[in-house]
Amino acid sequence: MQPMDSPASPLVAPGPIFDRRAWPMGGRLDYWPAPDGWPLRRYTLGAGTRGRMLVLGGRGDMIEKYLEVVHHWAERGWAVTSFDWRGQGGSGRLTDDPLTGHIADFGQWIADLKAFAADWRGEGGSPAAIVAHSMGGHLLLRALAEGMIPPDAAVTVAPMLGLRTAPLPHGFAVALAALMCRLGFADRQAWTQNEGSERQRALRQKRLTHDPDRYADELWWRDHSRDVALGPPSWAWVAQALASTSALEAEGTLERIITPLLVLATRADQLVSTAAIERMVGRLPDAQLHIYGREAAHELLRELDPVRLDALKRIDHFLDQVAP
User: Fold this and answer.
1) Buried b (16+ CB within 10 A) or exposed e, 7-16
2) Most buried residue among 84, 103, 161, 310 by CB atoms closer than 10 A?
3) Could you tell me which of 91, 27, 89, 32 has the C-alpha nearest to residue 63?
4) 14: left (phi > 0), else alpha (psi -120 to 50), else beta?
5) What does the alpha-carbon distance between residue 254 and residue 256 come to, in Å, rounded to a whole number?
């Protein structure tokens, strides 16, 4: 692992005001059929003169949350594609409760990603880059370790390489999730989230971003398109996340990933373990790491502009270096 150098040029300058509550002009929203026929909602924007980019969201995310950065990279010449993971966003649900973020096996998401990426790469165009946030970063690294066709470069932002289980000890959280699944609660929400509580909304916002306006954008999209709204994860998701992060740390797994990687994280992350990120990124053969401080929460690409623009500049500088 190499430390990430500072960007060679000043921060990305704010451009014209972007309407984060509208789909950009010129994009295409459709569905891509997974090998088993499951429709994954897909969005594409940009001409592709710079190359092709795949943007992967995190748990509970939908494409709408990342339209601002999709537009940023499209403006830089990338043909940007993003999709909603099976069971969230506009890609249907895997349980009768539409607000429960459920998956029985992370392997299903790995299979979806490998098939989607193979089809995406098969469309041609280069260089090819993947930018993945949180759970998306975890799934990307797992897929690469398990033989996914590698992109020319990849970026993971606050990757889920370990979960923050406090106040529960990690071992107790593993045992509790396994017990709840055995008791028949695998597809039930692991905790409650009172969307009507101003206090709970404020607490959730502080875990995600210091920017109340960008946080409000997510709530706006959920209110105006209820089929993309998602709440807490299921007990099965928790059990799978704990098991999958542990498996990724197994000796010899990360060492198989030869793709040039940039990893951005924050010491103030309340959702994923920064210590695990540092430990595991140090084992990657070709990786650069930059860690923000208390100025940044989990959603670095949806933070206040001083952090968000710096993160974009670091990503753009990295891609210009390794995938010109």
Assistant:
1) beeeebeeee
2) 161
3) 89
4) beta
5) 5
Rounded Cα gap, residues 231 and 287, in angstroms? 33
**Apex CA 41: angle with CA 38 and CA 43, to 5°?**
145
Total residue count of the chain as it appears in this document: 324
Residues 6 or more apart whose CB falls under 8 angstroms from that of 181 comprise 235, 236, 239
- Give the phi and the psi of residue 41 in degrees, each rounded to 5: -70, 130
| Residue 112 near residue 32, CB atoms below 8 Å | no
* Cβ–Cβ < 8 Å for 32, 54: no
Place of tokens 């973020």: 101
- For 65-87, the pLDDT digits (tens) are 999 999 999 999 999 999 999 99
User: Is the CATH code 3.40.50.1820 the one for domain 2-322?
Assistant: yes
Q: Residue 83 forms beta bridges with which residues?
A: 42, 56
> Which secondary-structure segment (H or E) carries 248?
helix 235-248
pLDDT in tens, 178-220: 999 999 999 999 998 776 788 888 999 999 999 999 999 999 9
CA distance 196 to 200: 8
Closest CA to 138 of 280, 270, 39, 36: 280
- Residue ranges of domains in the chain: 2-322
Handedness of CA 316, 135, 173, 167 (dihedral sign): positive
The pTM assigned to this predicted structure is 0.94
**10-residue averages of pLDDT along the chain (324 residues):** 53 72 97 98 97 98 98 98 98 97 98 98 95 98 97 98 95 98 98 81 95 97 93 97 97 97 98 98 97 98 98 98 96
Strands laid side by side in the 128-133 sheet: 2-3, 287-292, 261-266, 153-157, 128-133, 51-56, 78-83, 39-45, 28-33
